[in-house]
Amino acid sequence: MTSAEQTLKSGAGAAHPEHLGHVIFIAAAAAMGGFLFGYDSAVINGAVEAIRTRYDVGSAALAQVIAIALIGCAIGAATAGRMADRIGRIRCMQISAVLFTISAVGSALPFALYDLAFWRIIGGFAIGMASVIGPAYIAEVAPAAYRGRLGSFQQAAIVIGIAISQLVNWGILNAAGGDQRGKLLGVEAWQVMLGVMVVPAMLYGLLSFAIPESPRFLISVGRDERAREVLREVEGDGIDMDARVAEIEGAMKSEHKSTFRDLLGGTFFFKPIVWIGIGLSVFQQFVGINVAFYYSSTLWQSVGVDPTESFLYSFTTSIINIIGTVIAMIFVDRIGRRPLALIGSVGMVVGLALEAWAFSYDLVDGKLPATQGWVALVAAHVFVLFFALSWGVVVWVFLGEMFPNRIRAAALGVAAAAQWIANWAITASFPSLADWNLSATYVIYTIFAALSIPFVLRFVKETKGKTLEEMG
């Protein structure tokens, strides 16, 4: 038995372990979309400075090219659900894989800045689709006893994708002699960084042909016999297939299709619970976490760190991100969502405040003084660790649990849209803010991290141990 199977079996008590290996393969294949989500989101980190010099653009224009992918993300996330209901989950995965591949090739071989931006929008659309389809598919295919653990594959795949993209960028930079614009394979190094994503994108597409369609979708289009075959694959022969199909059909008929109108009410347009969800999404982004993944190489180089070392620090930050995510997955059901969020907020305040302090010092010979340089480096890792073990995971858990059944789908859509918009605001503003005052920029992120503490204490209720039906 593999370690993954042992982890899933511990405490799960599911009835059909002989099918577990196959189920893990299906979930892992679907989670490749999450891997590409993380990879494509973070790979641009290695190309920022090269794009700036190649096209001779200022910070504001550069930021728009980096952030524009998030527009595609929002569109992809908003349309993926309905698309999946019409053409199926697997077909959506295949479309997403094609878009990732097209984006990788186009981004690696741009004619000008404008078409690089276009290819990034295409990649963003694929990210948005993957962010919705992967978790939905895994939830629909996984046996109930393993659903939580298998569902965590998506988040794990995202953080692994981020880390691998930074490792690949570092390797390519070393192969190009430490120059982001150094020649490699007939093009510049940064172009190779963006093009390498073709490999996991094609793998994702191939894996999508090796896994079955969701039983839920098959039943929705009248293919009950194929749905029974898939249910046997993942749940075994020891279940009453007719009863299982009837159960899925009954659940689909009883579901309330929530709409935007269901969210209206209260004093300020939306119901209070919707504003709390929006608040969680905004705070998650306004602490500046994506600066660490989109701009960290640029950030370290701006304070005198050698480019090769700056790429290495980006990779080590990504490893810390993985460690923090694992910690969150272990403790989110043990100590609860609220305590974890509060612990993370306190840790982020400390890390961000120390970064603001370190960046307030003048550069000496183009570098931060030694003490401040080390403080900035350690503090950056502390910040990412506390974010990953708390808000990085907890917000998505909260958003999946906190809304009443009758508005859950629509409210989650609004909160997710708020998250993409907040992500765009931080990503688009950082280069200009950093040019203005890097230390003050981190003071702003520190303030948002500090404000998240009273927000959680005052407005956010614990959802640990409550059924979805109890939320109201």
Topology:
Blueprint: H1 3-9, H2 20-43, H3 48-55, H4 59-67, H5 69-87, H6 89-108, H7 113-141, H8 147-175, E1 183-184, E2 187-188, H9 189-195, H10 198-208, H11 215-220, H12 224-235, H13 241-254, E3 264-268, H14 272-286, H15 289-294, H16 296-302, H17 307-331, H18 337-359, H19 370-388, H20 391-401, H21 408-459
Antiparallel strand pairs: 1-2
Quick tags:
single chain, 472 residues, mainly alpha, Growth Hormone, Chain: A, two-stranded antiparallel sheet, 21 helices, globular
Q: What spatial form do the alpha-carbon principal axes imply?
A: globular
* Structural class by SSE content: mainly alpha
CATH architecture of the largest domain: Up-down Bundle
Query: Helical stretch count?
Result: 21
The level-1 CATH class of the largest domain: Mainly Alpha
Tell me about the biggest sheet? 2 strands, antiparallel
The CATH topology assignment of the largest domain is Growth Hormone, Chain: A
Protein name: Sugar porter family MFS transporter
Transmembrane segments: 20-39, 59-80, 92-111, 117-138, 150-172, 192-211, 273-295, 311-332, 339-361, 373-399, 411-430, 442-460
Pfam families: Sugar_tr (PF00083)
Membrane topology: Multi-pass membrane protein
